[in-house]
């Protein structure tokens, strides 16, 4: 069963200077509980691909052609309000720089609670806090009570990324986009966060789209890899297949 | 915790007193170094008919011949007892001169400030939400024009239209003769000066709010907030406004004395008996004692408002809370 299916998706930015095609005719599907790595060099359209699926792109970007199916339903022409309901609950996203992704003026606890409250409005204040503490525990943050009162500038990058993940998981999404989620972290913390993704997949059964330019990250974590270049998908396959093909290509040249 | 609070209060009060003291020294020195003769304020044109000996005698009597330091010490001594001397121009106690007028300025400036505070925030939010769309563009253009129109010209224009041609509103003073206690009458007199005060300042602050918010809207955390499932407007009000508010509050705290005391053009055009005209006159005629008190009043307000702004920003933006105060380490945890 495919939780997410993208068919012939093309996305363009319309600027006064002209049209810029960021994503060209991309098709792929994501199975339940699968980790798909989208790999490619910087600027090849990986982020735009994710954000266009979530419709988080600025107004000048538009989906030109193609279809997006989420959980079997076509969402290509969903309105902002319909998309809003899907965000957080069906799919969620973790961003590259955890230090700027959190609001510097709110305690991390308040930001997690806010996400909980949006998706479970019926909970009492105490239950919301309880749920936030559970989420923090789930992503491996110790002392949730104390931690919740801290502000983003008081915690490390790894901790902040865990908080962002906790926020992303607040409504138990089926698909998590990790947009270069480990790029801004140092190597040991990267490994911890990747392990966390694997563990979360096991616990919750969600699918993960792992956007990265680091082959090591893809090989270590993903089930399948999609290669992207200049806005086009140049290959999708199991990790072994893709990496063998890459090595093969290198030898031929 | 309680001790810490008291420590901090004492520290702030001490800082406040020191700053006011420094300001008084500064105003005292500068006013006395400025060219001009204070005897003109006291005797007016008659000074020219006085002999040199008489002038000298008058100076002696007013204590203007002594060294600067002695003069300051004497002034300080009196000020501590609540005696700020007499106004050379009005020949009565400085406190009386100011007391008679300060209420009018507080009403005009205070109301103006409140209106500007609320409207600027609202207008800034309105424009930021509609960035680069028709409404925003039109308001930006109108705003730029109104904020560039000089206050005295706008005052005259409004006077001409509403007081002379249409005759809807009174054009001068703070109240009609004999109707000092009539609130409706006072309100009618306030409309035009208030309109000028608000129109003259509003766009500057609204534009700051707008731009500050647009900066926030582009921050990374907005993406995460939308990712959670918040509506665009909720993101603007709950997240972006929180980031923009500290700088708005400190800006408005600095603006408070500026708007309160900066009404003198308006006061002059509308013959509104306030403190703005007083400040101008006292500086012009070397009415030292009056000038000291008027400047100190404004200055104290500025210092107080700045400190207030710092405290408010600290409440809203946690990053400003950690440094620089004794025992400030309590923030963690």
Question: Explain this structure to me?
Answer:
- The complex is a heterodimer of chains A (253) and B (333).
- Chain A is an alpha/beta fold and 253 residues long.
- Chain A has helices at residues 46-54, 80-86, 98-101, 108-119, 125-138, 144-148, 157-168, 187-204, 215-221, 239-252; strands spanning 2-15, 18-31, 35-40, 61-70, 73-74, 91-94, 175-179, 207-212, 224-229, 232-238.
- In chain A, helix 4 crosses helix 5 (125-138) and helix 4 runs parallel beside helix 7 (157-168).
- The mean pLDDT of chain A is 88.
- Chain B has 333 residues and is mostly helical.
- Chain B has a single domain (94-331), classed as MetI-like fold (Orthogonal Bundle), CATH 1.10.3720.
- Chain B is built from 13 helices and no strands.
- Chain B has helices at 2-33, 38-43, 52-62, 68-80, 94-129, 134-148, 151-165, 183-217, 220-228, 232-261, 264-269, 275-284, 288-316.
- In chain B, helix 12 (275-284) packs across helix 13 (288-316).
- The chains are: A alpha/beta (253), B mainly alpha (333).
- Chain A binds chain B through residues 54, 56, 80-81, 84-85, 87-89, 92-93, 95, 97, 100-107, 114-115, 118-119, 146, 149-151, 153-154, 164, 167-168, 170-171, and chain B through 219-221, 223-232, 238-239, 242-243, 316-319, 332-333.
């Amino acid at each position: 069963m495919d939780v997410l299916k993208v068919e012939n998706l093309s996305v363009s930015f319309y600027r006064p200077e002209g049209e810029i095609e960021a994503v060209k005719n991309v098709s792929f599907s994501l199975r339940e509980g699968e980790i798909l790595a989208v790999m490619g060099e910087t600027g090849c359209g990986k982020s735009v691909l994710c954000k266009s699926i979530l419709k988080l792109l600025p107004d000048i970007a538009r989906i030109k052609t193609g279809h997006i199916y989420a959980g079997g339903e076509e969402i290509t022409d969903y309105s902002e309000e319909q998309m809003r309901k899907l965000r957080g609950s069906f799919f969620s996203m973790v961003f590259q720089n955890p230090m700027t992704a959190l609001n510097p003026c709110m305690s991390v606890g308040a930001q997690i609670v806010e996400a909980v409250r949006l998706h479970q409005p019926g909970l009492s204040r105490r239950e919301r806090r309880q749920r936030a503490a559970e989420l923090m525990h789930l992503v491996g943050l110790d002392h949730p009570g104390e931690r919740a009162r801290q502000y983003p500038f008081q915690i490390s990058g790894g901790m902040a990324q865990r908080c962002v993940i906790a926020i992303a998981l607040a409504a138990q999404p089926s698909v998590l986009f990790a947009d270069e989620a480990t790029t801004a972290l140092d190597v040991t913390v990267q490994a911890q966060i990747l392990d966390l993704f694997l563990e979360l997949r096991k616990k919750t059964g969600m699918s993960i789209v792992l956007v990265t330019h680091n082959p090591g990250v893809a090989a270590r974590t993903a089930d399948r890899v999609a290669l992207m270049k200049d806005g086009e998908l140049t290959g999708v396959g199991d990790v072994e297949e893709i990496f063998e093909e890459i090595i093969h290509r290198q030898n031929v040249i | 915790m309680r001790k810490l609070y008291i420590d901090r209060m004492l520290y702030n009060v001490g800082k406040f007193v020191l700053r006011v003291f420094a300001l008084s020294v500064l105003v005292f020195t500068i006013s006395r170094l400025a060219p001009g003769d204070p005897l003109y304020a006291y005797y007016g044109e008659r000074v020219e008919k006085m002999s040199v000996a008489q002038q000298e005698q008058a100076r002696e009597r007013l204590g203007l011949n002594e060294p600067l330091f002695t003069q300051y010490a004497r002034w300080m001594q009196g000020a501590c007892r609540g005696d700020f001397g007499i106004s050379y121009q009005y020949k009565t106690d400085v406190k009386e001169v100011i007391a008679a007028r300060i209420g009018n300025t507080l009403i005009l400036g205070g109301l103006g400030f409140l209106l500007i505070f609320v409207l600027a925030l609202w207008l800034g939010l309105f424009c930021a939400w509609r960035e680069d769309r028709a409404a925003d563009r039109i308001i930006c253009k109108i705003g730029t024009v109104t904020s560039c129109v000089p206050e005295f010209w706008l005052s005259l224009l409004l006077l001409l239209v509403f007081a002379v041609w249409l005759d809807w509103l009174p054009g001068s003073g703070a109240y009609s003769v004999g109707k000092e206690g009539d609130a409706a009458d006072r309100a009618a007199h306030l409309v035009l000066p208030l309109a000028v005060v608000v129109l003259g300042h509003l766009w500057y602050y609204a534009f700051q709010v707008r731009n500050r918010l647009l900066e926030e809207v582009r921050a990374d955390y907005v993406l995460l907030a939308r990712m959670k499932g918040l509506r665009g407007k909720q993101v603007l009000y709950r997240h972006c406004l929180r980031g923009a508010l500290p700088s708005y509050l400190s800006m408005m705290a600095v603006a408070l004395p500026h708007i309160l005391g900066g009404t003198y053009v308006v006061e002059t055009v509308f013959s509104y008996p306030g403190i703005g005209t007083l400040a101008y006159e006292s500086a012009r005629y070397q009415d030292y004692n009056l000038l000291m008190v008027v400047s100190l009043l404004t200055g104290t307000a500025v210092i107080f408002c700045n400190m207030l702004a710092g405290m408010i920003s600290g409440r809203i933006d946690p990053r400003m809370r950690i440094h620089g105060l004794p025992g400030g380490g309590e923030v963690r945890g």
